[in-house]
Fold this protein.
Amino acid sequence: MKIDDQKIRNIGISAHIDSGKTTLTERILYYTKRIHAIHDVKGKDGVGATMDSMDLEKERGITIASAATYCEWKGHEVNIIDTPGHVDFTIEVERSLRVLDGAILVLCAVGGVQSQSITVDRQMKRYRVPCIAFINKCDRSGANPFRVISQLKSKLGHNAVAMQIPIGLENDVQGVVDLVSMKALYFDGDNGETVREAEIPSHLLEEAKAKREELIDAASMFSDELTEAILEEKEVSADLIYSALRKGTLQREITPVYLGSAYKNKGVQPMLDGVTYLLPCPSDIENVAIDMDKNEETVVLNNDTEKPIVALVFKLEDGQYGQLTYIRVYQGTLAKGSTIVNVRTGKKVKVGRLVRMHADQMEDVESLRAGYIGALFGIECSSGDTFTSPDVNLTMISMYVPKPVISLAIVPKDNKSQVAMAKALNRFAKEDPTFKTYVDHETGDTIIEGMGELHLDIYVERMRREYGADVSTGNPRVAYRETITQRADFNYTHKKQTGGAGQFGRVAGYLEPIADTDFVFENKIFGGAIPSQYIAACEKGFKQSMAKGPKLEFPVTGVKVVINDGASHAVDSSDMAFQAAARGAFKEAYLRAKPVIHEPIMKVVVETPAEFQGSVMGLLNQRRGMIIGSQDEDVMCVIEAQVPLAEMFGFSTVLRSATQGKAQFTMEFTLYRQVPQSIAEKIALEAAQNKKTAA
Amino acid sequence: MQTISVALKREKNIIHLTYKDIVMIKKEMIYRNPLVKLGYDNEDILSTGGFGAVLAYAGVGKTALLVQLALNMMLREHSVLHVSLNDAVSKVDLWYQEIFHDIAEKFGIAEVNEYWDKIQPYRFIMTFKVEGFSAPKLEERLTDLMEQNIFKPHTVIIDGFRFDEAGRGQLVQLKELAGKYSMGLWFTVHTHRHEPPQENGLPLSFLHIADLFEVIVQLATKGDEVYITSVKGQPKNSAQNDLLLDPATMLIKESQ
C-alpha cells in the first residue's frame, strides 16, 4: 500500500439519532473528493445522502446499516464507518466500535448530550475508543456549544476542551476561530470547500485568548515539554499542543471539541484535520486475540504486515453481486489468492475479489494490510467470525451480544413470499446476532425475535422492500421466562411393560433454584442405582423439559437438578426410558417448586421539558414503572425508570401526545424480574387462549 | 449475625431465603443503623419536620453515611427521597448499590439482587443543579409525585446544599415544607479546613443556622481513621462514645 501505518485512521461517527452524523459524513466525502455532489438525508432531490444506501434509511432519514467507506485527507487514508443512532440497532454500533481505532462523537448544539449519546459513550468506553467531539448544528436556533461542552463534562465525565470558538451562531454562523493557530477560519465557495484563514475579529480576540489558555492548560497535563514552555513563557508551537492533546486523547483522558454546522458547510475541514492530528493510527491501539491452541491465552496482535493474517468479519451485506463481507485486518496482509481459515468452522477459503467500499460503490484492490478495512466477495461466514492464516488458531474476542427480548409472528401472504421471506430471514440472522428466527412447532408460525419494536419493524420493512416478501405480522410478544422459587423433591418411575419392548427407569432427587445460570445438573448417585451409561440420558431429559415450562410453557431458567437415587431394569431400561423418566420427574417436582414468571424489564430514559415532568412520571407509573430518579437540567428534565417491556408497546405515541411531541425516550433491556401475581394471572389466561387458538 | 449466616447456609453455595429469613435479615440490618449506636433512642432519629446534619470536610464520607441511613430507612419500609445537587442519578444509584452490596456481603446474604429489588421502590432520586434548587421547586416536584400516588417520602436527604450561599431564608422554607409533609430532612454540610471549629465543635459559618437542626453529627479523620461524633441532639444519658468508620467501605467498624 502506498501509505504508511501512521497515516491510516479507522474512525466511526457515533451519535444520537438526528444529530446530523450522516450529513456530516456526506460533507466529509465531498471535501475529500469521494463524491462530487451533496445530497441531504431527507433530500428533495430524491437521491439521499451517500452513506444511507438502503432505500428504507433514505425514507426514514435514519441510518440503519453502517456502511463503510474510505477517503483521503491531507495524505492520510481515513476509513469511516457510519453507525446507526437508534438504540435498537446498538449491535451495529458495538460491532463498528470493535473494529475502529477512534471515533467522532457528534452532538447537537441545541439538544446537547442526550440519552442516546450516553449509551453510545458507554459503548465507546467499553471498547476504549478514543474520541474527539464535533458539535454540529450550530446554525440552529438555540445553539449553544459551550453548554454542550459543559454537559460533556458533567454528564459524560469527559475532560472536554474546546479547540475552537464560534464566529456567530444560529442564523449568523460564519466560521470558527482555531485556538491552536489563533486564526479565524471561514468557509467560502458554494459548498464551503475553500477554507480561508483570516485575523480573529476584534470582538472575539479576548475570548479566544482566554479559551486558548484553557486549551493549553488542559493539554499541558500530558506533556512536560509543553509545561516547561509555558513556565518559561516560550512560544508554544502548534505541534507541541497537538502532540500533547494527542497523547491525552489516546489515553481517553481528554476530548478535544470541534464546532460547526455540516448542513451549512461550516467547520468540517478543521475537524478532519483534528482526525489526522489527534485520533490514533492502527499501531497506536493494542488489539488482542484468543489463542485456541494455548488454552485460550490472550495474544497481543502485531500490526506487522509480514505476520500471519488475523482478520475479523464485522458486517455482512447482501449486495448486487452476492454476499459482501466487511472485514478488518488486524495482523498480516490479506491478498487476493491467499488461503484463509474461518476459525469458527475450520473451513479453508481462497480469497477471491477484494474491494474497498465507498458506501454502495466499490473499488477493487490487490491486498488489504494490517489496519485496513475492506470487503470480500463470495465468502460463506457469519458476522463476528475470525479469519486467520492456516498456521495459527486465533480468534478475536467475541463481542457481547444481548439476548432478544421481544418476538413477533410473521406470516407470508403466498408461496412466492414464503420463499423470499426464508431467504431474507436467513440473511438477517447472519448479519445481526441480536436478530433470531425460528418456527413455532405448535402454531406453525415463523417467529422473529429482536431487541425492540423498531428493530423488528425495520426488518419486516426490509423483507418487503428488498426481498419482495409480502408478510403480515402478529402482535409483538414479550419473552417471558419461568423459574422456580423453592426446592422440591421428585421420585418418578417411568414404566411401560405391557407387551412389546418394555421401558423402565426411576429417577429420584430434587430441583432447586439457582441464580445467574440457566441450568445445572448434578449427579449424586453412589453405588450404581442408575447405571452410569444412563446418566447422560437423564440430563438430556431434564434439559428438554427446560425448553417449555410446565406452568405456562415459557422457557425455564435458573434450575439446578440433583439426582441422588433411582432404579433400572436389566432388559427394559434404555436411554429413551430414562429420558422419559427425567421429563416425568421434572413435571412432578416443578409445580411443587413454586414456579413464577419473570418478565424483561427495560431501562427507560425520558427527556422532557420540565413542565411535563409530572405527566411523564404519571405515564411511567401507570405502566408499572419504577422511577429511579429525575434529573433537572435547566429547561429539560431527564427521568429514568425501570418499566416492564410488556407495558411499553405504543409508549412513543402516548408520550408524544402527552408532551406535545417535545419529549423523547430511549429504552434498553436491563434485567428479568418476577411478574406480580395479578399480572401473572392475566398472562396465564392469555397463554391458555393462545393455546386454544393454536389447537 | 453469625447465627443467621449459619442458618442460611444450609448447603454449599445455595441459600434459600424464606420470608422468615428476610424478616430476620431486616432486623439484623436495622440494628446496623449507623447512628443509633451513638445513643439516639428513636430509630428514625429525627422527629417529624426535624432537620439533621452530617458535617465533614470534602471526601470524608458524608454521602456514604447518609446513604447508610437511607438504606436503614428503606429496610424498615420507610420511603427516602434522595436529592443530590452534585451528582447524576446514575451515580447516586451506584452509591446505594455499592453500599448495599457491601452491607449484604458483610452479612453473608446471597440473594442480594432479589433483596435489592424489594427495597429499591422505597427510594427516589432527584437531582438538581445547585443554582436551580429551591424549596418551592422541591415542593413542586414533591406534589407531582404525591398527587399521583407515585411516591411519598418519609425522609429526605439533601446532598450538596450550599449553606454558605443559601442563607437562613431557604432553610426556613425547607423547614416549613418538612413540617407540612411530615418528613425528616438530612443534609450534608461541607466544612472547610481553613475554618477552625468553635467551642461547641461547629464551624462559624454554620452557627447562625444551627438552631434549626435537631441532630448534628460530625465526621473527622484522625490518622487513618474516620470518627463519627455527635455534636447535637444526643440523649443526655447515652454513652458518649464515638463511632469508627471503615475508610475502605465507609461502613461502621465491627468492633464498635
Residues 42-47, 58-66 of chain A have pLDDT under 50 and may be disordered. DSSP finds 16 helices and 38 strands in chain A. Residues 202 and 208 of chain A are 10 Å apart (CA to CA). The radius of gyration of chain A is 29 Å.
